[in-house]
Amino acid sequence: MIAYWIESASLAQLQELWWLLCSVVGSLFLFLTFVQGGQSLLWQVARTEDEKTLIINSLGRKWELTFTTLVLFGGALFAAFPKFYATSFGGAYWVWILILFTFIVQAVSYEFRKKPNNLLGSKTYEAFLFINGSVGILLIGAAVGTFFTGSNFVLSNYNFVTWTSSLRGLEAAFSLFNLSVGLFLVFNARALGAMYLVNNIDFTGVEELEGRLREAALKNFKLSLPFLIWMLIHLLPMDGFAVNEKGEVFRQTWKYLLNLNANPLLGLALVSGLILVTAGALITGRTRSTAGIWFAGLGTVLFALAVFGTAGYNNTAFYPSKVDLQSSLTIYNASSSRYTLQAMSWVALAIPFVLAYVAYVWKAMDRKKLTLAELTGKNAREVY
């Protein structure tokens, strides 16, 4: 049945499928930013070296997943929507260079923070982890915001990219809407990080740390709400970038609200995601349960899917040009050929098996909660 669909699917159907698959990967990445969020909490919640050691080693077990998912997201966009990849990464390269730089210093920090006689000292590497968890996520949020506010580029008939701002993508950070998206993601990641740490650590010997983490989860969730509200009240009535039957792009009032109305599943994902994130924060902050991360994690994925779906489906330009409307990119004019998308769809059949393996490894790693004795005892095996 699946094989028949892949072989018989039209180009438009394959384009919509691959926008969904890219959105799933992007949404999973936003959930996995609990690593970055936890890093940015380090100086706020850790009062002793033992507490700091516990937090960094707990997050250190998962940091590769976030980085790998980010690379996978970029690779999927490159293969499925190469014109977008070339336009954004080729034009707005300063913002992407800074984002990648924050992830590079994260990797270096986990590798060298505890190396004997390291050149920069452990506090410098901890500062790098904070930069990755704050500046890196803020810039990613600003980049996501441009799916709705647009960017400063023009495409020639030969798809040559001319970027009309000398800031090369950094101008996105000067939009209040883009900043609200970025700051929401920063505080949401911090809340997720606190929830993950509550779930992952055995607090024997550091009981006060658990209380501070539970408080941080609820506090950062509350701090995310103003930016979430600002984002939604500006997004729903915003003039969007619609595409007519001739492929021409034009501005349409209330476009993104119309998209949610046209696809009730997107609206359901949006509302359900917000409810689940709220439930996760309340479960962690108001009860003794450690399950909040799973509610909030699923909620983050659903909310992100709604955002990506609203940006790309229902004949919408997902990467609009503020300079030349007809240079705007849609999932139809930015995609690879039908043959390429078909071949990629066959490869994508392995995705469930990969996810099952990741889930198995995750469960095996977390079968026993991380303890302080494991890191500082006689047979300690501290890694980070």
From TrEMBL:
Topology with respect to the bilayer: Multi-pass membrane protein
Main location per the UniProt record: membrane
Protein's cellular compartments: Cell membrane
Keyword Electron transport: yes
PANTHER family per UniProt: CYTOCHROME BD-I UBIQUINOL OXIDASE SUBUNIT 2 (PTHR43141:SF5), CYTOCHROME BD2 SUBUNIT II (PTHR43141)
Gene Ontology terms, MF aspect: electron transfer activity; metal ion binding; oxidoreductase activity, acting on diphenols and related substances as donors, oxygen as acceptor
Species annotation: Desulfolithobacter dissulfuricans
Entry annotated with the keyword ATP-binding: no
Protein name: Cytochrome d ubiquinol oxidase subunit II
UniProt keyword annotations, A-Z: Cell membrane, Electron transport, Heme, Iron, Membrane, Metal-binding, Transmembrane, Transmembrane helix, Transport
Recorded family membership: Belongs to the cytochrome ubiquinol oxidase subunit 2 family.
GO biological process: aerobic electron transport chain
GO cellular component, one term: cytochrome complex
Residue stretches spanning the membrane: 17-42, 63-81, 93-112, 124-149, 169-187, 223-244, 264-284, 291-313, 343-362
InterPro entries, per the entry: Cyt-d_oxidase_su2 (IPR003317)
